[in-house]
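Standup notes
- DV: blocked on the single-chain target, sequence here:
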Amino acid sequence: MDWIDEKLEKLKRWISHADLKKALILYIGIAVVSAALATVLTAQICNSWARVLLTPYSETELIRGIDQEGHLVFFHQEKAYQALPRSVTVAVIFLEAVGDGSVVVYALAAVIIVARLYYKNKLNPPIRLLLKEAEKIGNNILDYPCHSENGDELGKVCNAVDTMRKQLACHQGKIWEDMEEQRRLNAAFAHDMRTPLTVLHGYVDMLSIYQEKGQLSPEKFQEILDMMDGQIFRLEEFANTMKELHGLKERELQKKDTTLQEVAACLKETVDILNHTQNISLVLEEPQNKDQRIMADISVMIEVADNLISNALRYAVSGIGISLEYENGILSLYVKDDGRGFTGEELKMALRPYYGEEKDSGIHFGIGLSIANTLCEKHGGSLSLSNSIEGGAIVCGTFQCEIL
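- DV (later): unblocked, structure below
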């Protein structure tokens, strides 16, 4: 029995993974063979019973005939033809009819059984799964699986729909993230715009009051205008950073053949200018493999460096170190300062746009590290934050650069 169960289970697995055409042929083949065997077996049984009924009269010749009432009867000859008992005749005729008509009955039964089993085992499960999945997707429920273990065409359709569901869920998740990011940016925009607008409104009220009382001297008027101009400049700077941040997503890389030496030379220009205008000492280390040729967008790298250096200048005490390292197609830009370093919260949150402790100072809008991170990602890399053992912060921007 174990051998039979094993073979049946193997046949069941084969049918579940067979394509629809092969499975239908197998179902029909089994039904035809079963109907033929049942028909032959039924005919043999009916013939056997007929012979049993006719055994008492088998010593004489039996012939078919019609009696006076027009009924079909059997006659046997002893001295003359005599009709067999009516019950025997009816029973034999019935058995013959059953034997002859069983082929039609079994054929119809085979068709019905094949249709029901084929629909139940091959069509109904995936169709119900697809209908359920369509209902879930229609209700925006994307966590309902549509995976099928069957290897037939409908099973592949279910798996394809399940893959589409996962991609749709991923895409919807990204849309929600973008919407949340936009909501947060809008909130930051509203927050940072509130202070300069409030100040400007106060200056306007001040001008109105002084003008009504006739106490506004030319010097005071000019002083208020200068302060208002400062707030307007602050708003302009903030609007420019907003435009810059949104434009990064559509920015296309302009990679070209270059060397590490050329990248370092561009950084040196920025470092030299800052060393003349800042009280902080900036030191750029010469890259070791400076003659290595790579494909890179230098403008993106310099922009990242500007943002990292600008952020480091806010916290450095006396010096900033800048270095370039290249290994296995990855160019790493390190900016180290000797300031207080990052707090635990800043290590988690500093890459978010507009995060910062000095938003109300009018100087820093907290997007420098976010812009640098976005540019690094555009170049196939990332931005990471850490603290030095000796003290101070370390920011590392990486860029994927093809080796030439």
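- Follow-up: The chain has a mean pLDDT of 80.
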